[in-house]
């Protein structure tokens, strides 16, 4: 007889709220540092300083016996995720926080499309409708023809796409390699990928810059950890809607701290995208399909 883990929805919601605050802290710190350092250098230093959190995984890395195919997949994921991180940092210092947060919700939608195209998952009509709704949400945010679509917005579209590819690779590797190895290899490869780009436009950081970027690494790792706790405590159908609070915090942070105007179209588009993601999650839980691509909803830095 298999014993199921008891569900604790209140605990799951609490940890997802903490997750949102952690990732908004990442966003705020990057936005604050932005004018002083090039975005790609900030991304590189965030991952370089964050390597300290890999110390517990050294044993698993040493014992891993990776095949040439697995090395290629890890390399591919590192390149895609590294590209996504560079684009995210670029966007973060050029467009409002709310825009970045709302468009970040597109990543799990891209994962759904990629899972159907490359992993053979069935894309039923309802999922197609949800994906279409998410893309409409993106158009509501961008409003091409009604306002200038900045390079920062284009960067966020690319970042969400790159992160989607990264997590599709993670889905494949998660069935073959220990989770600690998957996480550690991502951090190592992204650091390597970012290094040459950071050196091309290097600006010597101050001690305070390094402290703040280490704080970025701490909040990012903490956010991923609390998100794991949330998923362990309650199903995605409970925790997924809570991610909307990230958009609420982003709007408040942008308005109160960075003097960014509240754009009702961005909020509306973000709600449409998130609603489609929540529907996809609920639908997958309802039909209890096996091997469904997990929804990835957090800031991918």
What does it look like?
The chain is mostly helical and about 300 residues long. It has 13 helices and no strands. Helix content is about 75%, strand content about 0%. Helix 2 (about 40-50) packs antiparallel against helix 9. It is globular and about 45 Å long. It starts with 8 loop residues before the first helix and ends in a 14-residue tail after the last helix.
Describe the SSE topology.
Elements: H1 9-33, H2 39-50, H3 58-63, H4 68-92, H5 97-104, H6 106-118, H7 125-142, H8 151-174, H9 179-200, H10 207-233, H11 236-239, H12 244-256, H13 264-287
Helix pairs in contact: 1-10, 1-12, 2-4, 2-9, 2-10, 4-8, 4-9, 5-8, 5-12, 5-13, 6-7, 6-8, 7-13
Short account of what is shown:
The chain has 301 residues and is mostly helical.
Strand tally is 0
User: What portion of residues belong to β-strands?
Assistant: under 5%
Low-confidence stretches: none
What is the H-and-E element order?
HHHHHHHHHHHHH
- Rounded mean pLDDT is 84
Oligomer type: single chain
Largest beta-sheet details: none
Name the helicity range. Answer: over 70%
* Outline type: globular
Number of helices: 13
Radius of gyration: 19 Å
Termini gap: 40 Å
Structural class category: mainly alpha
Spell out the key features of this protein.
301 residues; 13 helices
